[in-house]
Amino acid sequence: MTLTETRVDQPAPQPAEVTDRARHERRLGLTLSAPAFIVMVFVTAYPLVYAVVLSLYNYRLTDPAGKSFVGFGNYATVLTDPVWWSDFATTLVITVVSVAVELVLGFGFAFVMYRVLAGRSLVRTGILIPYGIITVASAFIWRYAFQLDSGFVNQWLGLGDFNWFGQRWSSLFVIILSEIWKTTPFISLLLLAGLVQIPEELQEAARVDGATAAQRLRRVTLPNMKAAIMVALLFRTLDAWRIFDNPFVMTAGANKTETLSFLAYRQNVTLVNLGAGSAISVLLFLTVVVIAFIFVKGFRTDLSQVRGDR
Amino acid sequence: MAEITMKNIVKRYGDGFQAVNDVSLDIADGEFMILVGPSGCGKSTLLRMIVGLEDITSGDMMIGGVRVNKKAPRDRNLAMVFQNYALYPHLTVFENIAFPLRLRKAPESEVRQRVNEAAEMLELTEHLGRRPANLSGGQRQRVAMGRAIVRKADAFLFDEPLSNLDAKLRGQMRTEIARMQRRLGTTTVYVTHDQTEAMTLGDRIAVLRKGVLQQVGSAHQLYEEPANLFVAGFIGSPPMNFVPGRIADGRIETPFGTVAPTSERITRIGDRDLVILGFRPEYFEDYSLVPAGARTRGHTFTVDVDVTEWLGNELYAYVPYEAPEEVTRQLGELERELDSEQMRTQLVVALDPASRIRSGTKAELWFDPERMHVFDAATGDNLTRDPDRTFDDDNVHAGVRTE
Amino acid sequence: MVGQRASRWWTTGGLLILVWALFPLLWMVSLSFKDPNTFRSQTPTFFPSKWVWTNYQTVFSDALFTSALRNSIGISLIATLLSVVIAMFAAYAIARMDYPGKKFLLSMALAIAMFPQAALVGPLFNMWRSLGIYDTWIGLIIPDLTFALPLSIWTMSAFFRQIPWEMEQAAQVDGATAWQAFRRVIVPLAAPGVFTTAILTFFFCWNEFLLAISLTSTNRARTVPAALSFFTGASQFQSPITAIMAASVVVTIPVVLLVLAFQRRIMAGLTAGAVKG
Q1: Average pLDDT for B141-151
Q2: Nearest alpha-carbon partner for B27 in B55, B46, B54
Q3: I want to staple C14 with a disulfide (CB 3.0 to 4.6 A). Which of A28, A123, A175, A213 is the partner?
Q4: ipTM for the predicted complex
């Protein structure tokens, strides 16, 4: 037995011997991830690179012979076109309004689901139905509810023959309404999960300390839900930014209700204008990167927080 | 059956953290070895390196004379009981115990026989058809042990197996583990942070601190002849009292007066000024209760008793005292390492319950200076330690086992 | 008592949520039972004046819808199955193993979860044409399963992480190889999580619209969401509105059934991994 109170200077760190276990684990890990990796590269990484390349060409499928290299010409065209900026504004309005409303509404829902005793599972089941329903169906439901010759909304609200789809802002209102109806459940369930994590003791302690309900919400509940709120916001913001189904079905982009995803679709698929379309695709991708970056800057989720034992 | 030999084992994590530092330890065939230390001392890491769940940075791990550093856990033929038992919730108790045999594709008749044997030994027979979720804590613990037993493994490894049980059950299971180990005679390594478990269970105890082995020995050796301040403070409850002392002219100045140890001890202490003195709480006596013959042999002093605690079989008295700042600082550091939170310098004194000493009074206490430990103030080494001292009890457990 | 009054408040809130969630469904059902020839009016009502089955007959006699239903079911189920299997392997590796490239795989999955699919329809459209899988089942299954992968991996690795790490370690010490530990201990334990992930993935594939209209051109592979947007009704002179609602009701039924049967699981799956304790 040696009593090693004096610290011996350690030799420079040498790589640990690779044991059978570690080698086996490494090989198995790579094997298990390979299918997911290959599929993701094939369907996203490769097409994205392909889009970047195409975006540098003037290329229409209707005129393959006219393919020519134009450098950043397509980007210049897109960014100077008012359509891009109009669609950008539309997307921004839809995103900001729907996410803001959903956050408030989702909070309300989360609190109710947390506190309600009678019919708790009924409420939780009910709220999942909008989540699971097809977006296209939701779009039709709301479109027909507001449409002049079929909808009940104008009758119930006494609006006579006001045409909701006749101008930009009222059209956007209906689009946002459908979006909110369909996706608030998701945000409220994420918030509920955050709410459940806060120990009831904290609320009780705050109550004993003399906090009012509003103070408990602001000083105890909200700070402890920060992670849940940020996750919900990140997911929903990026999701809303990519909105396509609702405007496609409800207005087909009329009255300046076209979104960026819609524009990318229209250029690439409808007009088969692959050069400019690809430039739009790349720009759309970049906007998403910027949004994600803004979120990740102030808040980190590391999915790789593995090995909880050390 | 196998002996386990560790030579200069080091574990360094990717971030440079050194969890285990140059540990060498021999565990004899059939021996019950305890690894003990405060949380973060590297004891669990060391155990996991034995079983192969943690890679070894450097050094040699030998089991039964074979180097196993690079062997996968399944090739080491060891059995382990985890802190949370790691019972498979989707399998019945029978299948949980049978699991290692199933993996080995053992014939059905053998599986049945061995599982039933183990179940009988652990009194689990009537629970074999149940699922782990329906078992009590103690039963789960026994199932985990059953899984270890059927392996006929070379060694058993326990990772704080009792820490999730309540105090009463813990005592019972402790006895049960000791009984099982003695019956099977299998080499066992047992990790715990609980010094009571450490003292009662093992043949020998290895004390770890920050990845460094401090002392290996029987419970008696650790208690009576601790190698340093850390071991002295870790083993024993209530812990050993540490007070500052000064050496002058072959005498030791303590906060309670000056004592003169025998010349043999003073030689061992050597030439130094400041030391730390260690007193176990039971080294002190109420002077009025000390037999007349012993009174002259010891040192008597008067103190203010702050608080007393009467426990029926014992009486604890708390005695505050003043200490120089540098000593306070070092002792404070030691307290932190030992996961304790003593905030003031005070003596804890264990007295005869018949003593009349009460809170807030003056009391006359007595101690025998020959039992006092003297530690180097800088290194913490025990200067008065007799490493060769043996204790009658040391071989009793081993003797039982060899039968 | 204060508690009772508060509880009544929360019950009212719960009722409002239910109304909010189910009222549009009621509207959908109501509209689907209106007479396609006469339901249009200057002053439309909420409920039909006369309840008729005509729209359901129209829908089920239209090849566009019936083939779309077949395509939707087939494509969603296959894509779900493949995605869940592939994701199960990847999620397990991510949750429990240490190997080079893990971080990269994770970042890629995360990136794809945030990816604007619309940015890919152009290149995919082109690639699929040259590969000859444009307007085929496989041509939709591949992108569907890919875009579902991040969700599946995310959800499942959260489930895997809930399984105590000790389980595999115990299995390894008991003599299991990593593969045996995975198959005999982890897969049975993870089964509920895998099943939950499958439901969520199915919802995702069932809902997919953009790729379905971009990568198909005929009834061969067009799914229900795509077909709905192309639906023109029984005849050119009849409004398709009521028939579209009938079709919507039909495709909402599986969703409602799954939600009713597995409400708890879906909730757990949606929130798994989103918030760390």
Answers
A1: 89
A2: B46
A3: A123
A4: 0.90
